[in-house]
Amino acid sequence: MCGIIGFTGQAPALSFLLDGLRRMEYRGYDSAGVALCGASGDRLDIRRAVGNVSELEKAVAENPPDRSARCGIGHTRWATHGAPSERNAHPHVSPSGKIAIVHNGIIDNFAELKARLAATGHVFNSDTDSEVLAHLVEEAAGNTLAEKVMAALTPVRGTYGIAVVSCDWPGVIVVARKGSPIAVGIAGSAAMVASDPAALAGRAERVAYLDDGDVAILTPGSFEVRSLANTPVDRPASPLDIDPAAVEKGGFEHFMLKEIFEQPEALENCLRGRLLPDEGTAKLSGLRLGPREMASLCNIVVTACGTSYYAGLHGVYAFEQFAGIPSRIEQAAEFRYRNPIVSPDTALVSLSQSGETADTLAAVREAKRKGALVLSICNVVGSTIAREAGRGVYLHAGPEIGVASTKAFLCQVAALEMMALLLGRTRRLSGAEGAIVVKALESTPELVRAVLAQNDRIATIAEKYASANDAFFIGRGYQYPAALEGALKLKEISYVHAEGYHAAELKHGPIALLEPAVPVVALAPQGPEHDKTLANIQECRARSAPVVAIATESDPAIRAFTEDIIEVPPCPDFIAAVPVVVAEQLFAYHVARLRGEPIDRPRNLAKSVTVE
Q1: β-pairing, 99-104 with 160-166?
Q2: What are phi and psi of 204, to 5 degrees?
Q3: Residue 155 is assigned to a structural domain of this protein
Q4: Separation between Cα atoms, residue 577 and residue 583, nearest integer Å
Q5: pLDDT value of position 154
Q6: Could you tell me how far CA 357 lies from the centroid of its own chain?
Q7: What is the pLDDT of residue 84?
Q8: Residue-level pLDDT at 609
Q9: Which residues of the chain carry a pLDDT beneath 50?
Q10: Any idea what the CATH number is for the domain that residue 543 is in?
């Protein structure tokens, strides 16, 4: 779970590599490094540093490498094997010093391979699994670097996205993929590679995405893709549709705040062209499902991890309310390992912002083996889950650079609501009822804007609670997933211990922890269970716990219990989580800001979880 970048062409490589690493720093930031292959091809220049990319830039300034080098690879790391240190930072180098590799993923049998290599005299200089790959490539047979890489990967079990350079083959980068994303790009006389296509925005004219088992050979201005068996593979390149401005802060203090404020436009992009008011339904062409096929579905299983899991739980409520289809949510890793019962009339809906989440991808593959209809909801075009599912919905939320997801969550909720609406219209939902849902979904961008207008007030409320070390979030119905998501946001970026609960569960144990130092964020917009949530708030106040209420504007009942109220516009209960979650995002953001935490890059977290 880290960032790979590579460049070969007629221009100096170093600035490209450093810029690419900065763009991918959200993927891993405990250490970083580059390997440059000089024009003479007689040596590799390696620079590595502990910490973020700025530390690497200092190391480069203090000990300049060959700035004329036109080929190189770089890496920003999120530790799996070995503590953050310079010796464990990538790139890793072969014993001769002629080969350097960068690696994302986990080599499952690295201990076995390392022992075998050590027995023949290999000496290792790191605690990582990745270093084994550099040693394997060096000792492998082959007339080209690509052949050596192919041979080296034969005994490897696990996941990898790798890039390899050698001073014996100047100007050549070999990349390979199994379970970890890799994109290769072309622009004029340059070829480039990245584990995240956003790093190539504004640099690559066309991009191709590798599949598992692919090996790509990059030379200045071109690339070819082959299989591990060294047979040609066709991976056509297409234009890269990412605005370079989307990966810049645009005047905001943090990417997360920028992305929170981008949510109205993200929702508009997600909904655009998909709602049919006159018919009271939605059009989701990517599902490739006809009315008869939709009407035959008897069960829906939603599978995801983290924030996507909470969006999926919201979707389960919508599938049952609108379509009357029995639905459940499965944690993706649990689905993967517990041999779930899946029938041909089951649809598995997989959610992943990146489209590369390892456990969710494995769940997709397991469901396909069991004969389920597999659908995906992803944000990244060309991602592995989207391609393997073959049917689904792209969010069009735009890139997310902040590790804590914001735009993607709201757009996942919108996509799931549209999917539930579409399924409902093949079943029990009338045209008039569908039109109400359509109108509500169309209103979501303005609902979000109304909450964003309260940013200053939310910051003021956050000041009162920024010193808290514990917090609870409670909600009922559609607000229960929102409570889980609000607690996750607070703990992710502020390191405050926060728990989300169904409001009815509060008195079944957690209420024992309530005291004046433990605030409760109560999600209480007007809706079917509003009165019961107010009763839960009374229980909290009776234990002297302060309450922050997120409630419908001008709700007189809520003012009897707290003065710390964040107001949301009136709206139907099935979309009320949209403005509520935005309020939670801003609250978490300001708490983290006041505590001085690194909001965009929280410790120990990575944006795309591509390992188990």
Answers
A1: antiparallel
A2: -95, 140
A3: yes
A4: 10
A5: 94
A6: 7
A7: 78
A8: 65
A9: none
A10: 3.40.50.10490
Strand stretches in 256-360, DSSP E: 275-276, 281-282, 299-304, 327-331, 346-352
CA triple 469-475-477, angle to 5 deg: 155
Q: Is the peptide bond before 84 cis (omega within 30 degrees of 0)?
A: no
* Total of domains in the chain: 3
Q: Which pTM was predicted?
A: 0.83
Alpha helices in 375-425 (DSSP H): 384-389, 407-425
Residues recognised as catalytic: 2, 607
Contacts of 278 (CB under 8 A, 6+ apart): none
Tokens of 254: 């943090």
Residues 331, 372, single domain; the answer is yes
One-character DSSP codes across 12-69: -SHHHHHHHHHHTGGG--SEEEEEEE-TT-S-EEEEEEESSHHHHHHHHHHS---TT-
Q: pLDDT digits over 110-156, tens only?
A: 899 999 999 999 999 888 889 999 999 999 999 999 999 999 999 99
Q: What is the pLDDT of residues 419-430, one digit of tens each?
A: 999 999 999 899
User: What pLDDT score was predicted for residue 156?
Assistant: 94
Mean pLDDT over each residue of the chain, to the nearest integer: 91
Cα gap 52→280, rounded to integer Å: 50
